[in-house]
Design goal:
Two copies of one chain form a homodimer. Chain A is of the alpha+beta class. The first copy, chain A, has two domains: about 120 residues, D-amino Acid Aminotransferase, Chain A, domain 1 (2-Layer Sandwich), CATH 3.30.470; about 160 residues, Alpha-Beta Barrel (D-amino Acid Aminotransferase, Chain A, domain 2). Helices cover about 30% and strands about 30% of the residues of chain A. Chain A is built from eight helices and 16 strands. In chain A, strands 8, 9, 10, 11, 12, 13, 14, 15 and 16 form a nine-stranded mixed β-sheet that branches. Chain A has a six-stranded antiparallel β-sheet with strand order 2-1-7-6-4-5. At the A-B interface, strand 3, helix 1, strand 7 and helix 5 of A face strand 3, helix 1, strand 7 and helix 5 of B. Strand 3 of chain A pairs antiparallel with strand 3 of chain B, so a sheet runs across the interface.
């Protein structure tokens, strides 16, 4: 964690970065967030992240404490003060401090925190070169996974369960046996050279990296089928990978006890990862 | 909100009651809570609340920062320092402060906050004398509603939606049209003199007041059927009411646009409320 954080109007030492116990983010998960990667001092897909943050706030009727431009200035200032060239900006907006009551208060001032941390994208690239194991976990989340809210308890439980099974990421599976997404990532498979990924209108988060990879795939003339795929289908796929701001395009080489293809990253995921780094680094 | 709060080892002014921004309760809703009512300086059903708090922590593998007795001492001390005779203790335990990462940290020290506030139980009794309106809202919560977690975003959205429709409480309804519970309460109906309430093994919270009312009903020789009931059944019931620590036994006299019976509180709810106050006040 970097030294300086932005908390409700001030740049403070992270050691002294506090919010009130009656912040509704703390007692009700009444907040939304974004994670934005930083490459060579540039915020990757900033506008798309701001669009999604504003959409999440709109869905919860949280009024942003400031406009998009002032917020972007804070992101850059947090990045600058912490001297982060490659890393990750975390921004969280909550409904603010109010006496505990389930209904929305009419007087709370929304709270805003912005932090950042360093991230080694070479390590991400190295991890992608060998791929990771994933494990299936039941998707027991709520009905509005399109909102990027801080009510992440099911996500962290799934991630932890996966980790305890020796896996790097959880693959969330709905009651019908279809993959929804990862604990904090979007899931993809490759079959006969074309990509399959669940539609983002199907109660999953509309991933920013997912959208970027879709564009890149289109430029590379790789076709995409937007539909739900089952765990069985995933285990028999030619490739499987997930996308997220910090993992970019990460091959899954083993799902539960089943190797995906020959258990090494496939050519499509590699090609997309290279193209994604071309995009972020230029 | 009372003047003094307990926060991670200290009794502090509520105005200065802060937690770190990296408290996982703030970023992941990685925490649990209880609300315990206070009548004549006595914590009502304290042991049952502690049992449930410990169960919630166990389910999330959060290690309590202290034992039950020291925690109860803090509840009493917060009550005493704030001179609360009739009110409400709020306790929240989170997994603690850690660098943001979905999986559980192995070094975080669980965080504990305890607050209290005054509550006028005469006002509750008055409200119960006229009853309240409720409105049905789709239950879009996650699959582990048995855990009293702070991931309450769906609950607050339901409560707010109900409030915007002029109702006091939301009646959550599953996809099959059956009532699950309220936004922070348990739901009951009365038919031909006997009580019907959903089984607490059916993905709802095991209400402490619900359990107490079950005991009281049994003492009063009122039979209870533990099963799911539909919205249609509720609208045609002789009585409908909900239970919670702060609402005790609250009659619902109108559900959406339909009056329950003649639109006034019924005799069974009244009898249970009187018996509940007899229990808490003696």
């Amino acid at each position: 964690m970097a030294r300086i954080a932005y908390v409700n109007g001030s740049y403070v030492s992270t050691a002294n970065a506090y919010v009130h116990i009656n912040d509704r983010g703390y007692q009700f998960a009444d907040g939304v967030y974004e994670g934005i990667s930083i490459r060579y001092n540039k915020l990757i897909d900033l506008e798309a992240h701001l669009d999604r943050l504003w959409r999440s706030m709109d869905e919860l009727a949280i009024i942003s404490p400031m406009g998009r431009r002032p917020m972007a200035i804070i992101f850059n200032e947090v990045m600058r003060r912490n001297r982060i060239r490659d890393g990750f900006i975390y921004v969280q907006v909550t409904r603010g401090v109010a006496t505990r009551d389930h209904g929305f208060p009419d007087y709370a001032k929304p709270a805003l925190i912005v932090t950042c941390r360093r991230l080694n994208f070479d390590a991400v690239r190295q991890r992608a070169a060998s791929g990771v194991a994933a494990s299936t976990q039941p998707d027991i989340r709520w009905g509005r996974c399109d909102i990027k809210s801080t009510a992440l308890l099911p996500n962290i439980l799934a991630k932890q369960a996966a980790r305890e099974e020796g896996a790097f990421e959880a693959v969330l599976v709905d009651k019908e046996g279809f993959v929804t997404e990862g604990s904090s990532t979007n899931m993809w498979i490759v079959k006969a050279g074309h990509l399959i990924t669940r539609s983002t209108s199907d109660n999953i988060l509309s991933g920013i990296t997912l959208a970027r990879i879709k564009e890149i795939a289109s430029e590379l003339d790789i076709t995409i089928e937007e539909r739900a795929f089952s765990v069985t289908e995933a285990k028999e796929a030619d490739e499987m990978f997930f996308t997220s701001s910090t993992n970019c395009t990460m091959p899954i080489v083993k799902l539960d006890d089943k190797k995906i293809s020959d258990g090494t990253p496939g050519p499509v995921a590699k090609r997309l990862l290279d193209a994604y780094f071309d995009y972020t680094d230029n």
